[in-house]
Write a structure and sequence with these properties.
The complex is a heterodimer of chains A (about 270) and B (about 80).
Chain A (H helix, E strand, L loop, with lengths): L2 E8 L4 H4 L6 H21 L3 E6 L14 E4 L3 E3 L13 E3 L2 H13 L5 E3 L6 H9 L7 E7 L9 H16 L6 E7 L16 H10 L4 H11 L10 H11 L4 E9 L4 E8 L2
Parallel strand pairs in A: 1-8, 2-7, 2-8, 3-6
Antiparallel strand pairs in A: 1-10, 3-7, 4-5, 9-10
Helix pairs in contact in A: 3-5, 5-8
Chain B lengths: L7 H9 L3 H9 L1 H5 L6 H8 L3 H5 L4 H10 L4 H10 L1
């Protein structure tokens, strides 16, 4: 039987790379230390497979074909296409088709209908955290795209249910596989709307606190408050999937800091299993 | 356009200009690139005048941001136009 060996989350804003030089030194140090700590914990968990959850930022999908959820079931995935990530050290990332297909089958049997892709391009959402975590060896990646970019978006309650389903898929996989999960994105930010650049620190701190409460409170809070904050915060869906997968016991916050230079409330967390 | 309604070809232009070569071509000869898309004359005029709020009502905000980044507009100017027109 496979085992869940770690559940983590990290922000992924592209300016963490593109505008890194503009980040004040003390914030650079905290961000670097936070990502390193996450990388240390992930390496220590020795996962064979890393389920990675991120939106697709208009790289694989467009308005003509826009899945709410897509699971990458291929043998390999492409590295990031964004020019500012040309130094990312992996042009191809190995997948794990057997586990990914099992996840897809488990989903379909439970009445969930993900899209499937045998070759995804993994954009900054997937690759910046992996890069900044400074992993010596990449586990095999099973990417899971959750749409938080182009409305209508999957509901928060559904994302929580997806997390529970991911947990069930790990528990029901017959091979002795060590599986970790990394959710990326968030917390608050605003892209291409009049509030662009704003970081909603009260929202971020409420969310961080509520991840330690019963899941219903968090779902209700997000239902009421996501429409009132910047669109980038919609990526918290990925954290919700992680929360469901981890069994909802809350997380240890590795760090949170609003970083105006990258226009994101940056957070890193590791769930209690 | 109502909430959630998208100008498909305007959005497709923005999507395609994520490619650096396409973005460079647009910066050097926007009319040539625009000629490949069935975008209405009204929308073409708004593109020429950098009418950010008008265009914002017709596309996804991430695509809007990518487009103006590709077109060479600084974020500060983009945000100013988003807020004030």
């Amino acid at each position: 039987m496979a085992s869940l060996v770690g559940v983590y989350a990290a922000s992924h804003g592209p300016l963490l790379v593109r505008e890194w030089a503009a980040v004040p030194e003390d914030q650079k140090e905290r961000l670097t230390a936070g990502f390193r700590e996450l990388g240390r914990r992930l390496a220590e968990a020795r996962p064979d497979v890393l389920i990675e959850i991120s939106p697709d930022h208009w790289v694989n999908f467009f308005l003509d074909n826009l899945p709410a959820v897509c699971i990458g079931v291929g043998e390999a995935h492409d590295g990031p296409p964004e020019p500012f990530l040309k130094e990312f050290p992996h042009r191809e990332l190995n997948g794990h088709p057997e586990f990914a297909q099992h996840l897809a089958r488990t989903a379909l049997d439970a009445g969930f209908e993900p899209a499937l892709s045998h070759r995804l391009k993994l954009d900054h959402g997937f690759c910046i955290p992996l890069w900044r975590m400074q992993l010596e060896r990449l586990p095999r990646i099973v990417p899971m795209v959750v749409n938080s970019i182009e409305p209508p978006l999957p509901s928060i309650a559904r994302c929580l249910a997806w997390g529970t389903l991911v947990r069930q898929a790990i528990q029901s996989y017959k091979e002795p596989l060590r599986v970790a999960l990394l959710a990326t994105g968030g917390l608050s930010h605003s892209i291409g709307e009049p509030t662009m650049g704003a970081i909603d620190e009260p929202f971020d701190r409420d969310c961080i606190r509520l991840f330690g409460s019963p899941a219903g409170k968090l779902v209700d809070y997000l239902h009421d408050n996501l429409p009132k904050t910047g669109n980038g915060a919609e990526e918290i869906r990925n954290w919700i999937v992680a929360h469901g997968a981890a069994g909802g016991r809350g997380f240890e916050l590795i760090d949170y800091l609003p970083v105006p230079a990258v226009i994101v409330g940056c957070a890193l967390a590791a769930w209690r299993l | 356009m109502g909430p959630g309604v998208r100008d498909y070809w305007l959005s497709k232009l923005f999507f395609d200009l994520q490619n650096p070569a396409a973005a460079a071509e647009y910066r050097s000869d926007p009319e040539k690139v625009l000629g490949r898309y069935p975008i209405t004359e009204e929308v073409r005029q708004k593109l020429r005048s950098n009418d950010v709020p008008f265009l914002a009502g017709r596309t996804n905000p991430y695509l809007l941001r990518y487009f103006f980044f590709a077109a060479g507009m600084k974020d500060e100017e983009f945000i100013r136009r988003l807020r004030n027109g």
